[in-house]
Each structure stands twice: as structure tokens, then as C-alpha cells.
Amino acid sequence: MKMINFKKFYVRYNLKREHFILLLSILIAIALIVISILPSVQEKQPKIEYTPDDAVIPAKNVTTNQTQGETRGTRNNLDQVIIFAVLIAITPYSIEVYLSNRKTRIYEEEFVGFLYELSELLRGGLDPLGAIKEIASPALQSERSLQALTPHLQKAAAQIGWGVSFEDVISGMAESLKSPMISKYSYLIVQASRLGAINTTIILKCADDLEKTMQLEREKEASLKEYLMIIYAAEFILIGLIFMLNSTLLPSILDMMAASAGGKGVTGFGIAKLTMNMTQFRTGFFHVIMINAFASGIIAGQLTEGKARHGLKHSVILMIIGYSISLAFLIK
Q: Which end of the chain is more exposed for a tag (fewer CB within 10 A), N or C?
């Protein structure tokens, strides 16, 4: 009963496999964060110690530096856990989106070949249904590069054997391939067939137009590659600037201000004495690198492929690069 209700929910809301992958990854990431937070919360609970009335109560000699060091260490560990949780949440989903997009491209390229084959068989005198059965014939599969479409063509041939019309076969194939471009040109073919105008010329024109459209898409993506390289270069430039600030500039400024500080907490330059140290600066720099890496990847996907979700793979790559470099000079 539960399985039936689940299938109804799946069909009603048109859920995809990538949605379940994203949900499962997010749940795992949240569980990781919760598991990492629980020990630190337990350690912060106050411990009540009972002593005799005549016992000498020792002075509280826990130094401030030690307490601050433990707090910073816990915060740094939590930051790294959050980074790993974000990577766990988006990496499987980004891989699924990439593979799905790649499969759609293969379908589109092979669908062009299918239309060319269909037009040739129609020119040879076969009817549309017989042409589809001929293309799906196992004896001719080795002569054509339609490996990805083979299961869909075999399904179409089986439907033709059951008496399904040509329009329904083409519509069902377009729906199963889940490509907007294939759906658009399949709709044109279906409408031409319903009007009784399906012939070699119509099929050939659709194939030529689809091939030109795909060529324009590839040229557009190639022209946008340079902007993608700029985004990657900007991340490396940011990391280089932070490395220079962390290694030379900020330590010199802090040492100079500490040397010129007066007894009243004011530096020799008339500026209030800074309460931040290099560890806090490093933590802030690490946050900047990670946030910029995630946002830059999203922008790259929106810019080059038109959808932000396609940029998650760039976010994963940039975050891994930024984290790996940060281990060398920021995270200690």
C-alpha cells in the first residue's frame, strides 16, 4: 500500500531521480553536521563539583588564551565539517545533472541520424511505420551509430506491432528522450503526419534544421568558454591576493601596531588597538575563498549553459581547489 502511494506521489508531482539524489545528499550532509556538533555541545555543559566546607577552593587558573584556542579550534573544525557537508550535498546532484545533460546531447545527435535514416527509407518507398521497424531491426544496428536510441527504437517497433499509430509512436519516443529540442521537432513531424503531409522532404528539413540548431548551440558554448576561464582565473587571483595578505602585509601591520600601542589601548597612529589576531583573519579569508568558489560556480553555469544547476559541478571543482590550497597556508 505504501509503495502504491509512493508511485502516485511520484507520478503526480513529476519527480525525477535527480530530486531524490539531491534530497538524500542533503539529509546525509545534515546528519554529518549534527553528529559533529553533538560532542562540542556536550563538552560545553557545566560540570558541578562538590567540595567539603573546610576544603581550600583552588583559584581559577584556566588561562584566557587556552580557552580562546579551544574555541577557535572547535570553530575551525566546524567550518571544515560544513564545507564537507556542502560538498556531500551538491556533488552527487551535480554529477547526475552532468550525466543527464550529456545523455540528452547524445540523444539529440542520434535523433538527427534517425531522421536522416527515416527520410531515406521513405524515399525508398516504405511507409513511416515500416521505416521505423526497419531502423530498429537488429540486423541493421551494426551499420548505424544509434546505440543510445536502440532501446527506444525497439520499444517503438514493439508498439507498432501492437497497432499504435505513427503519431503516438513519435510522441512517445520524444517524451521518453526528455529533450526539449527533440520534443519540438517531433511535434512538427506529428502535426505534419496528422495533416497527411508527412514525406521525405518534411523529415529531411526537420533533420537539417535540428542539426543546424545543435551546431549553433555548440558554437555558443565554445564562445562562452573564455568567460568560464575568466571565472576560474578570478578564483586563483583571489587566493593569490589572500596568500600575500596572510604572509606579508597583515603580519607586518599587526606587528607595527602592536609595537606602537600605548598603555591605554591606543596605537601610536591614533587608532584603537585591534582585538583580532592572525588566526581570526585566516578564518575570515577561508570563508571568503569558499563562498566565492561556490558562488562563482553557480554564475559559471548560468552564464555558459543557461541554468544555475549546471554550475554546481564548477562549484565543486572550485571548492575542492580552494580547500586544498587553504590547507597549505590558512587552515592550521
A: N
Distance CA 199, CA 237 (A): 58
What would the grid cell of residue 70 be? 579551544
Q: What secondary structure letter does DSSP report for 246?
A: I
Q: Are 297 and 313 in contact (CB under 8 A)?
A: yes
Evaluated on CA atoms 190, 192, 198, 199, the torsion sign reads negative
Q: Provide the grid cell at 30.
A: 545534515
Q: Locate 297 and state its grid cell.
A: 560556480
> In this structure, which amino acid lies at residue 308?
A
Cα distances (angstroms) measured from residue 142 to each of 139, 153, 154, 252: 7, 14, 14, 71
Amino acid at 231: I
Give per-residue pLDDT as tens, 295-312.
Answer: 999 999 998 888 889 999
- Contacts within 8 Å (CB) and 24+ apart, 83-89: 83/290, 83/319, 83/323, 84/32, 85/29, 85/30, 85/32, 85/33, 86/29, 86/294, 86/319, 87/316, 87/319, 87/320, 88/25, 88/28, 88/29, 88/32, 89/22, 89/25, 89/26, 89/28, 89/29
Q: How confident is the model at residue 73 (pLDDT cuts 50, 70, 90)?
A: low
Closest CA to 19 of 314, 302, 309: 309
Q: From residue 127, how far is each of 85, 159, 199, 271, 276 by CA, in Å? A: 56, 16, 9, 88, 80
The Cα 285–Cα 278 span in angstroms is 10
CA distance 113 to 115: 5
Dihedral pair phi/psi, residue 306, rounded to 5°? 85, -5
Give one DSSP letter per residue of 296-312, joined into a string.
HHHHHHHHHHS-GGGGH
CA 205 to CA 112: how far, in whole Å? 11
pLDDT, one tens digit per residue, over 4-21 is 555 555 555 556 788 888
What's the distance, Cα to Cα, between the start and end of the chain in Å?
54
Residue with cell 551499420: 143
Residue 280's SS3 state is helix
